[in-house]
Amino acid sequence: MNKVLLIIQREYLVRVRKKSFIVMIFLVPLLILTMFTIIYLIATYSDDLNKQRTVWVIDQSHIFSGKFQNKHNIVFKDSQKQEKDAKADLRKNEDDFLLVISENYTKADSTRIYSEKKPNFTITGEIQDQMNDISTNSAMIKQGIDTAKLHAIKSDISISAKQITDKGEEDSSVGAAYGAGIAGAILVYLALFIYGAQVMRGVIEEKTSRIIEVIVSSVKPFQLMLGKIIGVGLVGLTQFLLWIILSTGVTVIAGNFLVKDKVTTVQKEQQLKTNQPVKVQTSPPSTPVPQSPAMEAYNSLKTVHFASILSCFLFYFLAGFFLYSALFAAVGSAVDSETETQQFMFPITLPLLFTYILSFSFLINNPDSSLAVWLSIIPFTAPVAMMVRIPFGVPGWQLALSMVMMIIGFIFTTYIAARIYRVGILMYGKKASYKELVKWFFYKE
Amino acid sequence: MLSIRNIVKQYAGHTALNDVSLEVEKGQVFGLLGPNGAGKTSLIRIINQITAPDSGEVYFDGQKLDQSHIERIGYMPEERGLYKKMEIGEQMIYLARLKGLSRAEATRRLKNWFEKLEMQSWWNKKIEELSKGMQQKAQFVATVLHEPDLIILDEPFSGFDPVNAEIIKDEILELNRKGATILFSTHRMESVEELCDSIALLNKSHKILDGKVKNIKNSYRNETYLIDYNSPKIDFNGSQPFTIVEETNNDDNGNSIKIKLNSGASANDVLQYLIPKVSINKLQEVVPTMNEIFIEKVNQNQPSHE
User: Fold this and answer.
1) Residues 390 through 409 of chain A touching chain B, CB cutoff 8 Å
2) Residue A70 carries which DSSP code?
3) B86 close to A (CB below 8 A)
4) Average pLDDT over residues A164-179
């Protein structure tokens, strides 16, 4: 056992000391910080769009004028000027818009909006919505429907997603779960491949450099394989833990400087307007209060259970890694160079690839379908499938079953891989076929 | 020291070792000879417990070979190799620790070896930065660093330049003097006569000859002598106690003949016959070289298998 520890130590240190490892440790949090900053900048930019705009209305149909409702970012004013003069005014007030509604407003292209700058679609969308409302209303009134009744009939529905959990109702955001599911699936998929390939390359390196024979005269092949797998696994774990710590660190610090600031000012505004303590929630408050996109993102992220996703990620990364890297080690032992690995790699990684592709379409949209459940229980596909499902909530028994299956799965693949590995590492210059591998498996000790 | 009994090892399709038995005594330099593919490496791998025999047993110091003996064996495979990207000092210590040495002890011994072989400046170098000869020297040090009782070297001299080969040979002999038993395989016979106390000859998975080098050579003496004499060529009339195998004329009346004694005759009879006739410069028994024995033995065994 002591020797396995020695091997783990070497495999770990050799990789952790590499420059590329150290660079990656800092590069990823830096990327996250950059992304964060970009999101912040976009948020601030969109705040700029929330600035009040004036829309001058020339209504030749006389149906709309005076019926537009001012919103927090749009003020409607009837223009008394001629269209030509009004257009000229736009040159002076470059943030203003001019809305021209012709007499026959239902005709296509009969309503135009003019501006110095390109109008953004939140404004055109808002105008369009209001015009449709007004037009329907006036049509209904024309048909003799009472306006008061009309208002009573009209509903204003906004869906606020609540999830029923043991702790009672919780706010949930489908969007955030979606993002977390996809991110988890991509990360676990990439991690399994990157670290699995590292194990395989390590085995090939030992084989081609021929040190393997020196090592296996000191330790059993199984000890070497196990030591290598655990060593590389720990490297992966170190990398992810450092990433998580550093990324949380930089985002918290950056958050203090950027978003927190923003959120609190918005919250203060909100407080002033509603005059009651702020509850952080995803659904917009009934009173239309401006919500900055930064805050919306901040809030919806809060509905994701990071702790449970992270611990599941670490479990499925490690278990999936043990399962696949054992097979990768067997592949490495069977070949003489990395170029020969293709024929074996493809079938081994097929289940993972299949789940990965499915996760973007079917699984993420149907996280509780029976296919998703099965895929998250079968050990070969579980790491990716389960990461997709976790943010949407997975029944405890399924999670437990899946984890037990993962452990059984990697013991099984390690057993198979070890039998191929012990023969493969001493075979040189022989092109291995599947038939050969089966033969190796049945070799006596 | 090492007792190999009735080892059989089969690989898919062919037999690598067929009922091979050997005895290696403590303190010997033992040569395992044979042409390529004879089964030498298979046998060595079994002694190193890299593979297990299908049947037969290996005893180490009277005990059945097991994992506990690994630390007492040092092995240098034919295909040398070290981690290319790892620094030498660290790598040697790692390999020694896998053989059960403590870090401190490994470091101390390694420093001595590096000093002895003038390798001090290599400590922090990576293997890939060294020449092939240097790599082999490093590999040798890695093999013996844990001071094994049994040192197994597979084709130890292949790949060394003459200077380094000589250094390594001296080191092997010194380790042997200090009590280590050496087992090495080779197909180069010159090294055998120089180094080995005993040999075993493997061919086509069978052991076809083994024993002390001296005894083997004695048994292959065939009463052939080489004589140099300094006088005009003599005519032999058939009454001489030998038959002539070969005759050569050198310059300045120097002649040499290779003779085979008639049965019952001795070297003294030859001298008595020749002394009145010629002035003799040299009379030397022609003992077959291991190489000749090797070739003869291998060829003898060839037809029976074909």
Assistant:
1) none
2) P
3) yes
4) 64
Whether the predicted interface score ipTM is above 0.90:
no
What interhelical angle do A306-334 and A434-441 show, nearest 10?
A: 100
In sequence order, what E strands does B175-265 have? Answer: 181-186, 198-203, 206-212, 224-230, 242-249, 254-261
| Cα–Cα distance for residue pair A337/B237, rounded to 1 Å | 72
Average pLDDT score, chain A:
80
Between A213 and A89, whose confidence is greater? A213
Closest chain B CA to residue A442:
B12
Q: What domains appear along chain B, each with residue ranges and CATH number?
A: 2-218 (3.40.50.300), 222-285 (3.30.70)
Share above pLDDT 70 across residues of chain A, in percent, rounded to a whole number: 80
Rounded Cα distance between B81 and B143, Å, is 12
**A50-119 — its CATH code?**
3.40.190.10
pTM score > 0.80 for this model?
A: no
Q: Is A30 on the interface with B (CB under 8 A)?
A: no
Instruction: Please list every residue in chain B whose beta carbon sits closer than 8 Å to the beta carbon of residue A216.
Output: 50
Q: Is A445 on the interface with B (CB under 8 A)?
A: yes
- Nearest CA to CA, how far is B253 from chain A (Å)? 59
User: Where along chain A do its domains lie?
Assistant: 2-40+172-441, 50-119
What whole-number distance in Å separates Cα of residue A225 and Cα of residue A202?
A: 10
**Cα–Cα distances in angstroms (integers) from residue B137 to residues A305, A329, A425, B71, B105, in the given order:** 58, 30, 24, 21, 20
State the DSSP H helix or E strand holding residue B298, giving kind and residue range, or none if neither.
helix B290-305
- Contact between B84 and A207 under an 8 Å Cβ cutoff? The reply is no
Block mean pLDDT (10 aa), chain B, length 306: 90 85 92 87 90 90 89 88 89 92 93 89 89 86 92 84 84 92 85 85 88 86 84 74 80 79 84 84 84 82 54
Nearest residue, CB atoms, B48 vs list A206, A210, A217: A217
Average pLDDT of the segment spanning A12-25:
91
pLDDT at A151 over 80: no
- Which residues lie across from B73 on neighbouring strands? B150
B251 touches chain A (CB under 8 A): no
Candidates A4, A206, A211, partner chain B, best to mutate (most B CBs within 10 A)? A211
